[in-house]
Amino acid sequence: MHHIKEVDKAMRYDSDHKGETRKRVLKEAAREIRAKGPNGVGVAGIMARAGLTHGGFYAHFESKEALIAAAIETMFESARSRFELTANDADPRLALLGYVDFYLSPQHRDSREHGCPLPALSGDLARLDPEARVRFGAGVAGLTGRLAEALGRHGIADPELAAASMLAEMVGAVTLSRAVADPAQSDAILQRAHAAVVQRFALGDGQ
User: Fold this and answer.
1) Between the chain's N and C termini, which has fewer beta carbons within 10 Å?
2) What is the spatial distance between Cα 86 and Cα 102, in angstroms, rounded to a whole number?
């Protein structure tokens, strides 16, 4: 009986250790993919930054494509946590305003490695394999749904349509603000998009 318990304990440790190692690799992969795009990352570099050897990669993932798909899912889990942290006010207007303030901020624009995966990856996904695109689509749907729920509580008509429009506008603004060379132009893109979203969805004081 004692031997069985020791074996069971060892198996649980191995499983937990493998799970934690996988999370570490995915965290590094997510950071690299945001920064360089999915086609610019290398498995060896990701494994090294996770403190592992290249040879251990296939104990966790079948292929680089499987790693990218799983990392995209990890990015959206982080985005969900960010949304919940930023938009945790009971008042839906304040919750939405807090998220818009974050999303259309210079800080978000400048933190490509840690920000929302939508502006970071949208241009690359059309060329990736279907699994990655399915994970990406699920992430888009999840974020849209969370916005729609808050917009519905805020009294916005047809909140699903409104959420899709709001998200598309914010993603587009961040993408453009990162693409232009002139810092003043970049700031203006964010500021104008912020003003438009706040006005259109009645998020300002007294609206």
Assistant:
1) N
2) 8
pLDDT score for 207: 59
Measure the CA–CA gap between 20 and 10, rounded to whole angstroms.
15
Q: Which residues contact 15 (CB under 8 A, 6 or more apart)?
A: none
Written as six digits, the tokens of 67 are: 């790693």
Give the sign of the dihedral formed by CA 33, CA 46, CA 27, CA 67: positive
Measure Cα distances from 50 to 47, 54, 72, 94 in Å.
5, 10, 17, 38
Phi, psi for residue 17 in degrees, rounded to 5: -65, -40
- Whether the per-residue pLDDT at 183 is higher than 90: the answer is yes
Instruction: For the beta carbon of residue 153, count every other beta carbon within 10 angstroms.
Output: 15
pLDDT tens-digit series, residues 111-128:
888 889 999 888 888 788
DSSP class per residue in 124-146: HHTTS-HHHHHHHHHHHHHHHHH
Q: Please, are residues 45 and 36 in contact by the beta-carbon 8 Å criterion?
A: no
Q: What is the token pair recorded at 101? A: 């303030």
Kindly tell me the sign of the dihedral angle through the C-alpha atoms of 38, 40, 46, 49.
negative
pLDDT score, position 57: 82
- CA dist 191 and 82 (Å) reads 21
CA distance 189 to 57: 41
- The tokens of 6 are what? 């020791």
Residue type, 32: E
